[in-house]
Amino acid sequence: MKKLLRILVVDDTKFIRDLVSKTIRTRYPEMMIDEAQNGRQAQSMLQKNEYALVLCDWEMPEMSGIDLLQWIRGTPALEDQPFIMVTSLDEKEHVVEAVQKGVNDYMAKPFSGEQLITKMMKTLVKTGKVSREEYAGMGRKERVTSGADAMSLLTGGMAASPSKPTNSKKRRGALGKALLMYNETRQTVIVRDITTEEVSLVVRCADGLPGLAQHVRMGLVAGDEQNPAKVTAAGFVMMMQLAEKKPESESAVVKVQFANEEREVREQLSEVVSILRRG
């Protein structure tokens, strides 16, 4: 009989919760996934159920991820609860604080489906929730990227199939994901096309849209999962239109013009763009 592993996904954005849950279920259909929209709801669920792992966002209303972690470590019955914190690319001080508060591991947004699975299973094995023998016999043997690729899982199926070649003049689907940041908003979006001058994004309307000429920051990551290229670049919204020619369109195309940055940021952006466009 297989061990029942229950995972708690905590994020105030339903879209992200759905994508993370779908990624886990695709690789490990035997796992049970529960979802909470903030730390307070997660707190209540942790008092009622036993979880093998908590995957938690940092910034949430009512109770933040760091406050939930602190409460868990201060509760005798939960002090050993495995906990992975999700942070933004530019929040290095938050990572340090999370480690000091007792986080088992952390992930920077945006991340791929394979990165999520790798972090999750590493923590489950390290904390003894899953033995190495059990790990070897769990889940589907193919990687997350087979059958339904990781980008498809994390973008609601909007990515192009990797079996269909594209060229630089006419690209289809997605090149990757990014974190779009403005005011207090952080959104995981799809990168449709990118150069060192500008980036074209697909944004879900339900998650909210930035304003025209809105100053934003883009968190981008690309390359090898163990040593990815990352950059956080500033810019402004220069164009925005619905993805479909109808008012009920579920997504919008947002074009961001990158601002003139210091040399180090320009070099980091150039590296990320090069990797993403190579596909």
Please give a structural write-up.
The protein has helices at residues 14-27, 39-48, 65-73, 92-100, 113-126, 132-136, 150-154, 263-278; strands at 6-10, 32-36, 53-57, 83-88, 105-109, 176-182, 185-194, 198-204, 215-222, 229-242, 251-258. It has 279 residues and is an alpha/beta fold. It has 2 domains: 6-148, Response regulator (Rossmann fold, 3-Layer(aba) Sandwich); 169-278, Thrombin, subunit H (Beta Barrel). The protein has a 6-stranded antiparallel barrel with strand order 6-7-8-11-10-9. Helix 2 runs parallel beside helix 3 (65-73). The protein is globular, with a radius of gyration of 19 Å.
From the alpha carbons, calculate the radius of gyration and give it in angstroms: 19 Å
Please give the count of helices.
8
Taking the sheet with the most strands, its summary is:
6 strands, antiparallel, barrel
| Strand line-up of the largest beta sheet | 6-7-8-11-10-9
Return the average pLDDT rounded to an integer: 83
Q: In percent, how much strand structure appears in the residues?
A: 25-35%
In quaternary terms, these chains amount to single chain
Weakly predicted, low-confidence segments: 141-172
CATH topology of the largest domain: Rossmann fold
- The percent range for helix content is 25-40%
CATH H-level superfamily title of the largest domain:
Response regulator
Number of strands: 11
The topology string of helices and strands comes to: EHEHEHEHEHHHEEEEEEH
CATH architecture of the largest domain: 3-Layer(aba) Sandwich
Q: Which class of secondary structure composition applies to the elements? A: alpha/beta
Q: What is the highest CATH level, the class of the largest domain? A: Alpha Beta
Count up the domains. 2
Shape: globular
Q: What is the terminal-to-terminal distance?
A: 41 Å
Domain Response regulatory: 6-124
Organism: Terasakiispira papahanaumokuakeensis
Protein name: Response regulatory domain-containing protein
InterPro entries: Bact_response_regulator, CheY-like_superfamily, Sig_transdc_resp-reg_receiver
